């Protein structure tokens, strides 16, 4: 019931977001049809604006947009005029989704064990080494990691292809480039969570009843120590799934992350609003899922 | 507390059941089990928990044994915990990878892979404006004429021949009998009438409708002043004869006919599918290739159109266009062997140009484009031509092309690049700081004193910024005046320039066709691209007069006079350098790319001679590294125009610039 209520509440929120995006992108100077090469007559520009209803008053345009939205139509792209925004989402989203999923899994797969390990080895050289690595991963941004990976593995050693999106081999480098930062971040969150948990009384109890350290860590500390990672994972997943401008650019990946940034630069109004809505919806759903998983992981959080 | 032995102690008592409780004094644990129903559960739970704990410990033990068995103790010790942690996500990632491997699409490798510049905004000939779009569209659609791969002159395409009336305003085109759509129907004169009407139709909202304003009533029809399309100067006399009436003689009209906007498009498909007709299948196309697929930002694949009238001279079967607007990515793809050709002037990393230029696979050639800056002539003190000239004379353009652009660009003193067959541009102002100082002093600013602060507007880009800084330094050093840099985002830049909301503004222009008009008409007073506030009735009159001439000999001096006004006397703009076209391909492996002013390289004439070097990893199973049998390798090389096509003009070898 609680989740149903939250789902319903998302609708007015999304409408509000669409309105803000719709207005804000139009406030920015310049329009979608401004080009370096002006058309030969002002009538040509007028025809263009008329074709895409940009000459109507704003409220009418917005009403038209909401009408389309009700039918699941995000409208035409004003930059890529052969495509609708739906077409572009349909082509780009699966790519961004799979790259995002891979990067998410990579980040969790590396981050959680690393965080766990550094917490378990607290104060020993394994901890220092692991923490150094996670700190490094957090500090180096994707636009440095990506080209470095390409330099090393594609251009120099020729192990992986440099860019594009064709075979599974094309997925590996971008996954690492996208996921490494988050892996480091998760490792740090995980370590923090584990260390906090290990001060708790129930851990002392577990030790007192004679459990081995491995069992204490894995069975008791892990379950609670991983909770901060879980709450971080929701927004992280939404973030990764909607694509990354930097990594998609560096690896020439046909996802929607590139469009999210470029559409606002090219004032492609329907595309901006459509993609912002998509991002917002994903974020809301992910947060909902996180709350759901909380109640599964932590018995203290029970939803009515 | 350890309850294990007690549970086993209870066992014998259990046999007696509840009845046995009464005669015997109860022992606590047995009683507890009997009296409180919750207790047995607890015991069972405890047992389960212990079992699980033992399982974990045995798992850990196994890991340790495994480690010792492998004799990796010193290495694995820190990783013992790792081994024990359920690394499900990593396993899942592995599984997904395997799954992807299993269902990876196995497309056949292309004969040619071309890195083509930015993602095309459209593939509809009436809509496109960009050069990358044009290169793809050029393979899919054709017009009355096409451009020769060597000289970029207009040669017959779907029109086999044409007649021109003596006054130079009426063309009669005769279409080929063997020109058919890729679906088999003949391409007729009414198809052209429809295609051109469609470009001019206000509802199509074509950016480049201006290319058809030379046709009688073209501009009025586009503006909605004439509603009846039959009043346009284009008519089909019969299925294979097209009559085109122009407003006035247009010496470059045949070049325009080769321009993408004027290509013939399939009427029935467009009327059925509307704006989304590029997605229709089958898609009737008039060019040398058909569209296999178009994945946005990923790849466009075209395949040889067997019904193309000149199919015998299409030298490859499958061509991939990779959209990419980043120089480093393009270079990586090319260097790792994932692409054969890079062609776009925007796809050259300027930082590496020094190194790349020395290589055999880097081809630079003159190009029909000019980099210049505009003055806002309404803004004081730039309303004074002496100030404009002073600033121009103080710019050491050589320094800019040597230190910043570095791709072999030539210094520009005039707007129109050299190399057009019918025009020799006049020389403009060179580098002369002394004259510059004198002019500035004459204008009332000796030594730059009291010169009001001014700004240089440019859109964010490293190259533009470097040039802006260089200009700032030069003017500071030579003239003692101070300039501020104003860097803005692209759309803001365009808006500010259109509104004349600038003092000086970076600009550039790429010619559409090989005629000086493509540069010079821009600065007529009513032209939307003027954007300087400059208007000179004499300039307007000269350009109009020149374009009315049918004799190129009489036309040239008029245009030269006009350009002299523009770049010497009035100087609303200062040309800095001419762009060069840069193309990367290995001459041993690829043939059929010829340098020309328009940077036009019809892909049907490009051929793979030798397989691409196995650059990409052996790890890439579907990577395009594998050597590929060369399709069409047995075809003989043919002269530049097709067998059925008499070349109307001799190739102007003198004007094809030599590659440096």
Features:
heterodimer, A: 304 residues, 74% helix, B: 660 residues, alpha+beta, 11-stranded mixed beta sheet, globular, disordered N terminus
Describe the structure concisely for a colleague.
The complex is a heterodimer of chains A (304) and B (660). With 304 residues, chain A is mainly α.
Provide a descriptive summary of the structure in words.
The complex is a heterodimer of chains A (304) and B (660). Chain A is mainly alpha-helical. Chain A contains 13 helices and no strands. Chain A has helices at residues 2-27, 42-51, 58-70, 85-120, 125-139, 142-156, 169-198, 201-208, 213-225, 227-241, 245-250, 257-265, 269-297. The radius of gyration of chain A is 24 Å and the shape is flat. Chain A starts with a helix and ends in a 7-residue tail after the last helix. Chain B is an alpha+beta fold and 660 residues long. Chain B has helices at residues 4-14, 28-35, 38-69, 73-76, 80-84, 88-102, 131-140, 189-200, 218-222, 253-257, 267-273, 327-335, 353-356, 385-393, 397-405, 433-442, 462-479, 490-498, 517-520, 537-548, 552-569, and strands at residues 112-115, 145-147, 154-156, 159-164, 170-175, 234-238, 241-245, 289-295, 299-304, 318-322, 341-343, 362-375, 410-411, 454-459, 483-488, 504-510, 573-584, 590-591, 607-608. Chain B is globular.
Which SSEs are present, and which pair or pack?
The complex is a heterodimer of chains A (304) and B (660).
Chain A: H1 2-27, H2 42-51, H3 58-70, H4 85-120, H5 125-139, H6 142-156, H7 169-198, H8 201-208, H9 213-225, H10 227-241, H11 245-250, H12 257-265, H13 269-297
Chain B: H1 4-14, H2 28-35, H3 38-69, H4 73-76, H5 80-84, H6 88-102, E1 112-115, H7 131-140, E2 145-147, E3 154-156, E4 159-164, E5 170-175, H8 189-200, H9 218-222, E6 234-238, E7 241-245, H10 253-257, H11 267-273, E8 289-295, E9 299-304, E10 318-322, H12 327-335, E11 341-343, H13 353-356, E12 362-375, H14 385-393, H15 397-405, E13 410-411, H16 433-442, E14 454-459, H17 462-479, E15 483-488, H18 490-498, E16 504-510, H19 517-520, H20 537-548, H21 552-569, E17 573-584, E18 590-591, E19 607-608
Parallel strand pairs in B: 1-10, 1-11, 14-15, 14-16
Antiparallel strand pairs in B: 2-3, 4-5, 5-7, 6-7, 8-9, 9-10, 11-17, 12-16, 12-17, 13-17, 18-19
Helix pairs in contact in B: 14-16, 20-21
